[in-house]
Amino acid sequence: MSTTWLRGNVLTLLENGTEFFPALQAAIDNARDEILLETYIFAHDDIGQTIAAALTRAAARGVTVRLLVDGFGGREFVATLLEPLSEAGVNVLIYRREVGALPLRRRRLRRLHRKLAVIDGRIAFVGGINIISDYEAPSLDAPRHDYAVRIEGPLLGPIHAGVRHVWELVAWASFRRRLRLPASPSFMPQPCGDVEAAFLIRDNIRHRRDIENAYLLGIAGARREIILANAYFLPGRRFRQALLEAARRGVQITLLVQGLADHPLQHRATRALYGQLLAGGLRIVEYHRSYLHAKVAVIDGRWATVGSSNIDPFSLLLAREANVVVRDTGFAERLRSRLTQAIRDGGQEISAASWQRGPRLQRLLNWAAYGLVRLMIGIAGYGNHH
Q: Per-residue pLDDT for 139 more than 80?
C-alpha cells in the first residue's frame, strides 16, 4: 500500500452530531457552487429534515447539489425524502437500491458505508456520522458516540476526486445519463495549515486493504500506547496477532467497544474474542452511556485515524469505506483526550479474572454467534480472506 501524505491541512475534530451537524449545515448554507454528499443512512427525523432543508435551500439559490445514499441504509430515505428532494432540484442517486429479499447475496452486502461531504472544493467532512439523530433511544440521555473531521487544505484534492469517482460509477450503472459529471481538471487546494494527513478508501478493486494495512502499519510501529474505539470490532487473525504482538512489546492497548448492542449477533461475536485478547494483556472497556458508533484510533499520541470503517469483515472485506489518517501530535492528543473522557464517563472495564468467572453458557453463546458470523461471510464468498 502506498499512502499519499499531504501537508498543509487544517483538521477540526467533531464529536457526535451535536458538533458535526451544525458544522455541516453551516457549510451547506454557505455553499456557492457545488455540494457533494455521501451517506449510508439519511433518516426522516429532525436531523434528516434539517439537512434536507439546507440542501433544498442550496439548490434553490443555484448551487449544484449531488446526494448519494446507500440503498440498504437509506431505505427510509427512498420512501420519504427522495421524491421531495428530487423535486426541489437536488440530484439524488441511490447506491445499490434494494430490490430483492436474499440477505446473503454478495452484491447485497457490498454497501456504501462512507460518510463524506465536499463543499465548493474548499471544505470536506470525513467520519462515521450518518444523517440521523444522535438520540436514537428515548431511554438514553446521552447521544450516540461518534466522530468526524472537518478538513481544509490539500487533502481536499483526493477527497473530491474520490467522491466524484463513485458518483460517476453509480450514475453510469443507473443509466442516469443526465446526472453524469462534466469533465473537471484535478485540483489541489493551497496549504492553509500545518497538519499532515492522508485520505484512504476501501473498495473491491484497487484499494481492498488500504485501511486495514494502515492500521497494521500503525500498530507495528507503536511503542507506548494504542487506544482503539470501534463500534463493530471483529478483527481477523492477522489484526489480532498484530495487537497481541504489540502488547508483548510492552505497548499499553485499550479497546473501547460497544456495551449497549444495537446488533446483538455481532456484539456476541466480538465478546467471543475477549478471552484471547485479555489473556494477551489488552485492556477492554465497554461503553455503556449510549450507543458507541465510533471508528477511530490513536497511537503514541502522534498517529490517529477517523472514518467510517469498522474493524470487522463487513467493513474490511465488503463495504466502500473512507478514513482520514493523521500524523500530527496536536490532533492526535485532542482525539486521545476525547476518548479518555468517554472511557471515564461511560466505560466499564472487563478484567481477565471477571471474564473467566462469567457464566459458561454466555461464553458458549458468544462462540456460537462468532461461528454464525463467520458462516455468513463464508456464504458470501469471503471466508478465506477472514
A: no
Q: State yes or no: is 267 an active-site residue.
A: no
Residue 115 annotated as catalytic: yes
Q: Choosing from 29, 44, 45, 120, which is the catalytic residue?
A: 120
Domains of the chain: 6-196 (3.30.870.10), 197-385 (3.30.870.10)
Q: Among residues 29, 45, 262, 300, which one is catalytic? A: 300
In the block, cell 465497554 appears at: 286
Q: Where does the chain have alpha helices with state H?
A: 16-29, 46-60, 75-80, 82-87, 106-109, 156-173, 210-220, 237-248, 264-271, 274-279, 313-317, 329-346, 352-357, 360-379
| From 70, 267, 295, 328, the catalytic residue | 295
Q: Tens digits of per-residue pLDDT, 66-110?
A: 999 999 999 999 999 999 999 999 999 999 887 655 554 555 568
Report how far residue 378's alpha carbon sits from residue 117's, in angstroms, rounded to the nearest whole number. 33
